[in-house]
Specification:
Radius of gyration: 29 Å
Largest sheet: 3 strands, mixed
Structural class: alpha+beta
Protein name: Alkaline shock response membrane anchor protein AmaP
Keywords: Membrane, Transmembrane, Transmembrane helix
CATH class of the largest domain: Alpha Beta
Shape: elongated
């Protein structure tokens, strides 16, 4: 049985923003700034505005630069940063969701897993309140406040929260007794 392109696309995990996006935004802002300076120099050079061009002075200052220890250090640091950015750019985007066990096309965020598990634990008999303390791809932690020290109530809340979370693909759900405030 062959799978179609749509089925393959639907079975891929949703991913978050790539780690390189902030660097790309900074690079784009730097290019826009360079374009603004270049257009300003063009306007001044054509005589449409008064002033002195900036770029010829900068280029004359760089002309005749001789290799020194400081320049070598700056170039080495720039090369190292470039290699790190290259490696980060080639890494895959991080996965942000968890696949449900029964469905190949149902993906849930850790916050959604935590909300479903917390709501299920909160509706368990004998539970006063439930709140999520940690929600990640691998583990969800829920603090539950009950009436007294009833072990059966905690066991029921744990079972209900685990069943609800596992249906959406949660790997581990910890239900703890909430500390008194």
């Amino acid at each position: 049985m062959s799978t179609s392109r749509v089925q393959r696309a639907l079975s891929r995990p949703p991913v978050g923003l790539h780690r390189f996006v902030p660097v790309g935004i900074l690079g784009a802002v730097a290019l826009v700034a360079l374009a603004v300076v270049t257009v300003r120099d063009l306007v001044v050079d054509r005589g449409w505005s008064a002033g002195q061009p900036w770029l010829p002075d900068v280029l004359r200052g760089l002309d005749g630069t001789t290799p020194t220890t400081g320049l070598l250090v700056v170039a080495t640091v720039a090369a190292a940063i470039g290699l790190v950015l290259l490696v980060v750019g080639l890494l895959p985007s991080p996965r942000r969701h968890v696949r449900a066990r029964e469905s190949e096309q149902l993906w849930s965020s850790p916050a959604a897993l935590a909300a479903v598990s917390r709501a299920a634990a909160d509706r368990a008999p004998g539970v006063l309140s439930a709140r999520t303390t940690r929600a990640g791809r691998r583990r969800v932690t829920i603090d539950v406040a009950t009436r007294g020290d009833d072990g059966a109530t905690m066991a029921t809340a744990r079972e209900v929260a685990t069943t609800a979370g596992r249906a959406l693909g949660a790997r581990r759900i910890d239900v703890r007794t909430a500390e008194e405030e």
